[in-house]
Description:
The structure holds two protein chains of two kinds. Chain A has helices at 18-32, 35-38, 71-84, 105-122, 177-185, 203-212, 226-238, 253-262, 284-292, and strands at 51-59, 65-66, 69-70, 89-100, 125-134, 142-152, 168-171, 218-220, 241-245, 276-279, 301-307, 316-319, 325-327. By secondary structure, chain A is an alpha+beta fold. The longest helix of chain A has 18 residues, at 105-122.
Amino acid sequence: MSKQPDSRILLAHGSGGRLTHELIEQVFGKTLANPILDRMDDAATFDIEGRLAFTTDSHVVSPIFFPGGDIGRLSLTGTVNDLAMMGAKPLYISAGFIIEEGLPVADLETIVASMGDTAHEAGVQVVAGDTKVVERGAADGIFITTSGIGLIPPGVQISATGAMPGDAIIVSGAIGDHGATILSKREGMDFDVELQSDCAPLGGLVADMLAAAPGIHVLRDPTRGGVAATLNEIAASSEVDIEIEEERIPYRAEVRAVCELLGLDPMVLANEGKLVAFVAAEDAGQVLEAMKKNRYGSLATKIGRVRKIESSRPRVYARTVLGSRRILSMPTGEQLPRIC
Amino acid sequence: MPLPFLDDFRQGQHVRALLEQLAEHAATLERPARIMEVCGTHTMAISRHGIRQAIPESLALISGPGCPVCVTANADIDAFIEIALLPNVIATTFGDMLRVPGTRMGLAQARGQGARVQIVYSTLDALKLARENPDATVIFFGIGFETTAPTVAAALVEAHESNIDNFMVLSAHKVVPPALAALCATPGLAVDAFLCPGHVTAIIGPEAYRQVVDDFGIPCVIAGFEPADILQSLTMLIDQIAAGRSEVELQYSRGVRPEGNPTAMAMIDRVFEPCDAEWRGLGVIPGSGLAIREEFAAHDAARRFPVDVSYSREPAGCLCGAILTGIKSPRDCPLFSRGCTPDHPIGPCMVSSEGTCAAYFQYEI
């Protein structure tokens, strides 16, 4: 289909007729091929035994191509990582595409190829899919919704309610890369910085961590709302206080620079290839060691600890460089640049 | 683009050494001192880095009228909303303004009623929008101090020279020195020293505070925005208070030249002329606003779209006015964190990323 360099997606590609079949065969079928998908039945069928995790995630990122990834890779890592954060081994994925009429076919091919590569890296299979095309203006290029199923190994019990006083809090690397990258590429703010999204599947990292300490209490990927939102959610779910050391939080200099220019806090910027782990203090050393050996955890750092609840409601505190304590609050609304 | 200087200025051991030095100097004070910061970025930095909690109790840091969104009077906000609701208008503004409640509604609600409101990151983006939409009138809400006024002036010059007739500005710009003088003359103001804004001073130059130190005898130090800058500036202010001096001193020497930025000041002067302006909390201050000069009248939204906002009033029960003059603290306001939160703001100080209430709510509640 890509023989004509300027060919674009038409409404007819979503009509269920000849063009739809051509699109499915030549774009999706080729790239995402696996025995289950290749049957092209109405639904994927497979056998799994054990405790399952099941989740879904929609992706509407703008721009759809960004340094370090694209909406295809992101749509896979989003669901894979949600499964991994329950300790599950991600297995099967479905993908629904809503495409705006006029999207270059070459863009779609790039996006689907990127999904294929990411699925391969994450060890998952895309086994079901659907495509709809909508009129120009009814979507922004392409939206992708993925769902996924993963298998939870016996004995793993991970939940946002599981944080215990004394737990060590670990982040898997430098924070804010994805959010800062997207912000810096938005219209009107094309900063010339060497920044890349951290967009990555974390199933392997989680497997390594669980091998080191099966009793991990909480895992979460700090996507929208960043580490600040994640810590506040976990404090509320587990009814504990959290105290982090600001000096220990890893950022890239470029992320900090973008944040300084826009008046943002890296702690509220989205990440797409990072996790926050709560582990018993005695397990922290082994978990950190295992993380540092994985390419997606090489900068893993302990940033704080869980404390007993101190006041009427759970709070997250940050110890500043001055040694004083401030609130790290739930981010409010959209993060917008300062005006002077 | 690594920024090593930020790490240098935040590095724990240096900052803690400056904190110890501040405590030693503060011990020489005969009585507690009240120091006002008159820049929203300082307000945020003080809350964000826990400076208020770290410094000796004999120093009280109070926030002044330094947040451009917050000091904008409701009448100006209402006028912009009325214009935004007119047919065939694209209203452009900086992000914070979107959520600020006006008397009848905020811009976000106006957008819900069909107004075309677009957030821009610079005035030049608004100008670009005007070029791309020749059939619509693009109106930019000009708020802020001497730091933002030059870029708005440059956009007006560009629009004028390139005949972009559908680009207009509603100017609610304000200048800092007359407001500081008015603040000094406010009865009941108990301020021993001013922590002066680094960014604004980079434009207007340190001499702009001459009247404050000479006529009112209040020490001024122009400060940078990192914890180390603020701690060092506080020490400099304490030394002035302890010695009974009142001088303009420059801590933020890496950002401010003695003459300020004459090019930017000339740009302001070319496009704007001084006018009386209403400040939330301070009332009308003579010569503290910037009106668009006659030469650029075609691009002046106030002239082109006169709207009636006689209904304007401040939100009931909101203490933003008293908070902006440092007479009250956010915790004194009965609405703070109860009726008024960043998600459901009643006054502008809770909305803006530089607002005093937002800073207290986010970091110190």
